Structure formats: C-alpha cells, structure tokens
Amino acid sequence: MTNWIEIARLEEIPRLGSRVLKTDTMDIAVFRTNDDEIFALKDSCPHKGGPLSQGIVHDHAVTCPLHNWKIDLRTGEVLGPDEGCVHHYAAKVEDGVVSIRLREEATAL
Amino acid sequence: MQKQKLVLIGNGMAGIRTVEELLKLEPEAYEVTVFGSEPYPNYNRIMLSPVLAGEKTVDDIVLNSYEWYAENGITLHTGDPVIEIDRVTRRVRTAKGEQVGYDRLLLATGSYPFIIPVPGSDLEGVIGFRDIDDVETMLESAKTYQKAVVIGGGLLGLEAANGLLKNGMDVTVVHLLDTLMERQLDKPAAALLQANLEERGLKFMMEAQTAAITGQDRVQGVKFADGSEVEADLVVMAVGIRPNIELAQSAGIYCERGIVVNDTLQTYDPSIYAVGECVQHRGQCYGLVAPLFEQAKVCANHLAKLGFGRYEGSVTSTKLKVTGIDLFSAGEFNEGDEDETLVLQDPAQGVYKKLVIHDNRIKGAVMYGDTLDGTWYFQMLRDGTDISGFRSTILFGQHDLGDAGHGDERILSLDDSAEVCGCNGVSKGEIVDCIVKKGLFTLDEVRAHTKASASCGSCTGLVETLLASTVGEGYSAAPSKKPLCTCTEHSHDDVIASIRDQELKSMPAVREAMEWKTPDGCASCRPALNYYLLAAWPGEYEDDAQSRFINERAHGNIQKDGTYSVVPRMFGGLVKPDELRAIADVADKFDVPEVKVTGGQRVDLFGVKKEDLPAMWADLNAAGMVSGHAYGKALRTVKTCVGKSWCRFGTQDSTGLGVKLEELTWGSWMPHKFKMAVSGCPRNCAEATIKDFGVVCVDSGYELHIGGNGGIKVRVTDLLTKVETEDEVLEYSGAFVQLYREEAHYLERTAPWVERVGLNYVKDRMADEHGRQALFERFKFSQQFAQHDPWQERAEGAQAHEFTPLKIVG
Ligand code: SRM
Ligand SMILES: Cc1cc2nc3c(=O)[nH]c(=O)nc-3n(C[C@H](O)[C@H](O)[C@H](O)COP(=O)(O)OP(=O)(O)OC[C@H]3O[C@@H](n4cnc5c(N)ncnc54)[C@H](O)[C@@H]3O)c2cc1C
Ligand code: SF4
Ligand code: FES
C-alpha cells in the first residue's frame, strides 16, 4: 500500500513550466524541468506567500513572480542570499505518468 | 570572389589601428599581410614612459597579441623590415628575402628619433627613445652605470629623464633654449615645471648647445659649444622626430618632410595609402596618436571602398606623463598682438592657468597644477565656442558654471559600481574595464566606446582622471564588463549583435554560440533573449511562454494575493456605452472586487481569479474589446485630450490621431513598456512631454517629442522634429518604435536609452529619409504577427493549461 497519487500525464505539464494541483487545504505547484524531472512544492513562497507555480523555472530552481526569490525545486530551500524553506513533496514519473506523494509514508517498513 | 591583397608596412600604432577599423567595416575584403621591423606584436608606444618608470611591464602594453593576428587571419612577419617596394609589379621585398604581392599597400613606418649629427653620436651608450629596445637599453644601463644625460627638454626628454631618475640614475637634462617644453608651454608654466622637476632631483643645463659626444668605445661625456663638459655613461637624444620616409622615397613615392597624402590618406600612387607619423598632410606632420587614429579611421573607410569620410587635419593637445605632474597644453598658447589673455596664478598651490582668447573664442590653453578643465577648454577651442557669457568665471573651471564639479581623487576611492556618467548611466567599473580591454588612451575613444561624458560633459574631469589613473599608474585586476546576467559574460549589445549577425534563431542557439554558463538561463536572461529573438525574427521565431514573466504569460497583472487584473484597451481613451456596459456586466458576473479608472485613460478590474480570466476575456471580446497589455513590456496606452472637435483651444484632431497611433502600434512587444500621448495644443492636457513618444499639436502641424518618462525618475521629452501631416506622425512614430525595439536593451525605457545613445544619434536616424522608411516598413511587417489579441486566442482555448488546475485531490 502506498500514498502515491497519479495526477497527470507528463505532457500535460509544460517543460520549464508548472501546473497547479488543488487540494482541500492548499495548492501544490508541480514543476517540470528541461530534462523532464518533476518536482512538487507547496504553492506558496516562504517570503510573502507568492504563487511559485507562476514563476520562471530554470535548471532546478524557480524564481518567485512577486519579488524574485529563488527556490531550489529539489529541497524547497531558498537559494542565497535570502533564507527560508517551503514544503516539498516526493514526485515521480513512470511510463509518462506523474504521481506525487502527499503524506509521508512510514518508509521503515 | 577572390580576396584582394593588402600589405601593411609598419606594425605600429597607426597601421594596426587602420587594420582594426577596416576589419570592423569589411572583415572579408582583404587578405592582410603585415611587416614589422620590431620583433614584437603591436604595442602601445605611448606607454614606454611608464614602462621605463617601472610603473608597467612590457607585457602590459601589448595592444594586439599574436593570437589577435591569427584570429583575424592576418599574416604577420616581425623582425623583418621591408627594404624594397616594386610599384610596377606591385610587390614588396624584405631584408630576409620574403616577397609578397599587393593590390593595396599601406605605409605606416612611423618616425625615427632625430640623432644630432655631432662627433661621437654613434658611440655605444648613445640612443634615442622610441621603442622597446631603447627602453631595455636604458634599464640595463641603469643597473651598471650612474650618470645619464638626456638631450632635449621636451615631452619625450622629460619623460625619459623622469624614468631614468626613478631607476636610480643621476640625470641631467640638457636643453638648447631657456625654457622647457617651449612648444607646449609658456614661460611661467615652464618655470613651475622646472622647479617641480628639480625638487624631484633632476638637474638642468639650459641654453646649452651640444657640440660633441666624447668617449672611446662607450660614451664618457658630452661637450658643449661654450667649451664646458659633463660626464655621462648614457646619452638619450630626445630632440625631435623625423618621419621615416626612406623606403617610400626609394620607391619613387612623392615625399616632402613626410610622405605626402591627400584627404583620403592616399599617396601620389593611388594604390598606396599612408598613415601615421610618416605622413605629411596639408603641410603638417603629427607626433601624437589622436590625429593618427583619425587618419586610420578615414583610411580604413577608403580601403573598405566605402568612399566617404575625409581627413581634414587635427588640432592637438598634450599632457605630460610624469606621475604627479599635471600639465595640459593646447592650441596657440603664446598670445599675438591681437589676442587677449586670461591668467590665474596661485603660486602657493602651484597652479597656473592661461587662456589665449581672440574675439571671445579660445585659441590656446596652458595649465599647470590643475588640469581638470583642460578637456573642457580644448572642446571649446575646437568648437569655436563663444565664451562671452561666462568669460569672467571661465578660469575657475566648469564646475563653477553650476555643473557637477568633482575633485580628482574622490573618484579613485569610489567602488566600481559608482556611476560616473549620470547621463548615460556608465559606472566607474565599466569605464575602467573598457579602457583596459579595448586598450583606450584618449578621452574621445572612451567617449566613443562607453559614451561616458559624451552628453552633458560635466563628468569629463572624472573620466579623465580614471583614464590617467588606469593607463598611467598600472592597474590591478580588471573588473569584468557588465554582463546581461550572471549566466553569461556577454553584454546586452553583444547578444543583440550576435543574434542578428550570426542569425541565431532560438534560445539554445544563442546560449550555445555565446557560451552560456547555465543550461537554460535564469529569470533575468530568458525574458531578455525571448524578446531579442522575437524582435529580430518576426514571424519566424516562436514565442516561448515559459520565458515570459508571469504577467505576460497570463496576460494580466499578478496581484499580491495571486489574483490578476484585467484592463481592456480603449483606443485613444475613447469608449462606447456598449463597451462600458460590457465591463459592468463582467464585473458583476465574476464578482470583481474593485473597478478603477487608471492613470492611462481606461478601466481596471482588480482581483480576478486566474481560472476566470479566459471566460471574462471572451465576454469582453464579444463587446469588441481587446487586451490593453497593461501587464506587458509592450505598447501600453495612447493618452489623448479632446482636441479640436470640442475644445476651444484645440488645433488638430488629437483624439482621432491618438486612436490612429494606437491602432498602428498596439500589440507590439518592446524592450520595456511604451506610452504615447497626443495633446491638442501646447497646454498639453495629455501630458505628452513625459511620454516615450508624445505629440503636441500646433496650428502648423505636429511637434514630435521623444524619451519622456513620468515614473521613478521624471524626464521631460526631447523635441525630435516637427511635421505637417498625420501620415508623417505615423511614419515617425513607427520608425522610432522600431529603432527602440531593435537597439535598446531589454528593460531599458526610452528615456535612459535616448540618454545612453545620445539624442543626436536618434535624430540622425530619424532624419535619414530612407532609413526612417525602412524602419517603418520593418515595424509594419512585424506588426502583422503581433496584432492578434492574446485574450481572444486564449478565450478560444490556446495555452489552456495555464488557466486550469491539474486536478483537485482530497
Ligand atoms: C493601473 C495603474 C495605476 C492606476 O490605477 O491608475 C498602474 C499600475 C501599475 N503600475 Fe504603473 N500604473 C498605471 C499608470 C502609470 C503611469 C501613468 C501613465 O501611464 O500615464 C506611470 C508613470 C508614467 C510612465 O510610465 O512614464 C506609471 C509608472 C509605473 C512604473 C515606473 C516606470 C518607470 O519607468 O519609472 C512602474 C514600475 C515598472 O514598470 O517597472 C509601474 C508599474 C505598475 C504595476 C504594473 C506594478 C507591477 O509591476 O505589478 C502596477 C500594476 C497594478 C496592478 O496590479 O494591476 N508603473 N504607471 C495605471 C495603469 C495605466 C494603464 O491604463 O495601463
Ligand atoms: C616614449 C614615447 C612616449 C609617447 N607619448 C605619447 C603621448 O603621451 N601621447 C601621444 O599622443 N603620443 C605619444 N607618443 C607618440 C606616439 O607613440 C606615436 O605618435 C605613435 O606611436 C606613432 O604611430 P605610427 O604607427 O605612426 O608609428 P609607430 O608606432 O612608430 O609604428 C611604426 C612601426 O613601423 C616599423 N617600421 C618602420 N619601417 C619599417 C619597414 N621598412 N618595414 C617594416 N616595419 C617598419 C617600425 O619599426 C615601427 O614599429 C609617444 C612616443 C614615445 C616614443
Ligand atoms: S490640449 Fe489644449 S485644446 Fe486640447 S483639451 Fe487641452 S487645453 Fe484644450
Ligand atoms: S512572495 Fe515570493 S519573493 Fe516575495
């Protein structure tokens, strides 16, 4: 039993772009890099809550549209000189299908 | 087509500069071969003085490395002088027997130091001061010998003496006349100079005529006409230069004092050109680089077969490159009977300034101790400026006229980002960098390359100080030039030029050709590249949504809470009741929290949810409205006043013209936002004189104004020109927009752009009828692809993923 949820086909997310995944409680930004890796972050910038899904994606980072903070897609950490961190979620692509894991599983099992 | 052969004799400053200018104009026109007698690539001869003084090394002063010759496909033969020119078979032959044919020959053989023909002048230890070998001889001698005599108290002699003194020698300067540098200085200034140099430890023998050099194999002393004598282990003759014309003469090319050339730098043999110190033009020979570089430019133009440009002679100015001595001289500094002089003398400060005036115009200037305003005076001298308005304060300098005056030293302590030239936004780092990288050494060159001090001129003194400190005292690690962003070392201009010249048509192509350091750029360079490509290749380049800032991707302004604003276009500020009704309806239908009239004469709907945008746009489209691009680096609004249809003062149909302007230009992407306005009379209710392009209607036609800005830094427009018809207004506006689109830097509004490139540049481009029409045609062509309403496209389903969430999960 896993917590992986299929959310889209890879081609539904533009390269160097993102889509928003809505949940009951919040929005999640799902990013696709130029080399087709997928990352998911809470769609809320650690600075003033800007929607990261609307930013410009480059390499493995996104620049927030409101005040240009840069966030590392792999960790959710803000890249210098600013500081902060946004929650990130595990995401994967299998056979062209994108899935993410919303709740952390007890991986020890 | 087979390339023509160009042979250059003389691998020095003027010759190589000519080749550089030629490569800029026609890189493929010639197969170039260069012969130089010295065993070095082209170096900066001027800097031999700092090398001798130990302030620079020989490596520092190389201007064109061996790689430069190779990269430009130039065959270089060093250490092998040409000894024969055969004009019949058009071949040259060198000392080592090399033979090369030419279609065009360029002579740039420079000059020789004049060696006074007295007995003993051929002894070992008697040299001139001209090339690297001379400097090395002097440096060697300083190690083993004590006493040096420099014959000649002119510019070169004093720089040699100063250098030898710094190398620990006991130096005596021998001069024929009673004042130093008599060709540049009047008596009071020369006396101040001599006193200063004596303080430093130089000895002088004035009014001394050299009669013989004594010694067996090596020099031991110098004998004078009055019978006196002085000991010497080294004698440097610096009494003048003689154009090097023997080779030309032996080939039967007409020479007088120098090789005689016309205003296109052509000798009497039309296939042979000559530039530099070996040349005599309109009876003048020059011994400073500024005029030689002017010659190089004209000569290259003719070699490139462009056939315009004439060299009409130069007025020169001089400075002495002895660290710590400020001296400036230009023009005729000894007054004639008809002239007047203005003098400022402050012995305590060691300052002396003199201007020779004729008919309220400056004829000459001599300055000692404080030379900050030298270039200002020189400029007025060359321009023939009437100084009657500020004659009483002119000697106090430019800053006394109300311009920003700065002390020399202050600038040196500022950091590299400090802005030096406010008009053109040039920082200290950029100037220093340009001087170092491009090997500049005249104020005019720094102006041409950086535009610093090219506009109002109030920072001229600062730029001069930077120039002097950079080339004069040895520089540390060079700061890099201002790159587009941290992903690259290239500047905006480099990128624009490469996209155009190398026909780069995609972002990866640009990043590859220009060696980007990141795989897919960053949030700064991607929008810039996307714009440059879009502007360069209309209809061909496909816009990249992922490289657009969110506002331009979502076609609305993002708000602080992540919602968007919607501003439909109202052409010229006109609106129909139906359109207002449609706006009211969408505001109700989509629960728009706030509706506001903007400063741009239209209506803004704030707080719209992103998912609602396409549906809202569809409703607005249905009422005939399109996107107002209130979010874009694009044509924004054309503001108008009521004009002559209603207003009692109106002279023309300002509203109607505004509508036409907006219809012409809407939808075009620009380096930054672009605003226009049309006012119906000079009362200017539409505020046309703070717009990027403003029209003020008058009885006889239309005044066109450019480069205004009402934002962070208010700037009033400059008047571009006046025209008589609406059609001309449209043509000028389209051409101006296109010039801005093609040449401005991304995120540079017209105000800083006009200041950077200079109003005159823009005026010239607009005044040239063919050029203007071509720009206008290019603009109309690109508009074919731009004038599609982005809202309609999206309302019909384009880019749907942008506006719909992936899915909703629990
Ligand atoms: C809506 C409006 C204010 C209003 O309620 O009236 C407005 C709103 C904004 N202006 Fe403005 N400007 C508005 C007229 C102006 C004007 C007046 C004018 O155009 O006559 C100016 C001064 C004139 C000028 O540009 O020269 C103006 C000078 C600026 C500037 C400073 C530009 C500069 O060159 O210094 C910015 C910042 C920028 O562009 O970087 C700016 C930026 C902005 C932004 C886009 C801020 C942003 O990046 O989010 C604002 C968007 C608000 C939003 O959420 O939608 N706005 N802005 C006006 C829209 C006009 C329109 O119909 O399109
Ligand atoms: C120490 C010093 C300080 C100076 N300071 C200043 C200054 O502060 N400001 C200023 O404006 N100017 C200054 N000058 C003058 C300036 O350097 C010259 O005006 C300039 O270098 C002349 O350029 P040119 O190309 O005509 O001659 P050069 O630079 O002398 O080049 C001519 C070259 O041709 C070579 N050549 C000659 N005959 C042949 C042949 N037959 N075959 C092959 N090669 C040949 C020579 O060896 C030489 O390398 C200074 C000069 C010196 C020496
Ligand atoms: S521009 Fe002149 S004519 Fe037009 S409305 Fe203003 S004052 Fe009246
Ligand atoms: S909210 Fe993201 S940078 Fe300010």
- CATH architecture descriptor of chain A: 3-layer Sandwich
Structural class of chain B: alpha/beta
Q: Tell me the quaternary state.
A: heterodimer
Task: Count the E strands of chain B.
Answer: 37
The total domain count of chain B is 7
Strand content of chain B: 15-25%
- CATH H-tier superfamily of the largest domain in chain B: FAD/NAD(P)-binding domain
Mass-distribution shape of chain B: elongated
Characterization of this structure:
The complex is a heterodimer of chains A (109) and B (810). With 109 residues, chain A is mostly beta strands. Chain A has one domain (2-103): Rieske Iron-sulfur Protein. Chain A contains no helices and nine strands. In chain A, strand 2 and strand 3 (27-32) form a beta hairpin. Residues 105-109 of chain A have low confidence and may be disordered. In chain B, the strands form ten sheets. A five-stranded parallel β-sheet of chain B has the order 3-2-1-7-19. Chain B has a five-stranded parallel β-sheet with strand order 9-16-10-11-12, with helices on one face. In chain B, strands 21-22-25-24-23 form a five-stranded antiparallel β-sheet. The model of chain B is unreliable at 400-408 and 473-481 (pLDDT under 50). Chain B starts with a strand and ends with a strand. The chains are: A mainly beta (109), B alpha/beta (810). Bound molecules: siroheme, flavin-adenine dinucleotide, iron/sulfur cluster (SF4) and FE2/S2 (inorganic) cluster (FES). The site of iron/sulfur cluster has 11 residues of chain B, from loops. Residues 45, 47-50, 64, 66-69 of chain A line the site of FE2/S2 (inorganic) cluster (FES).
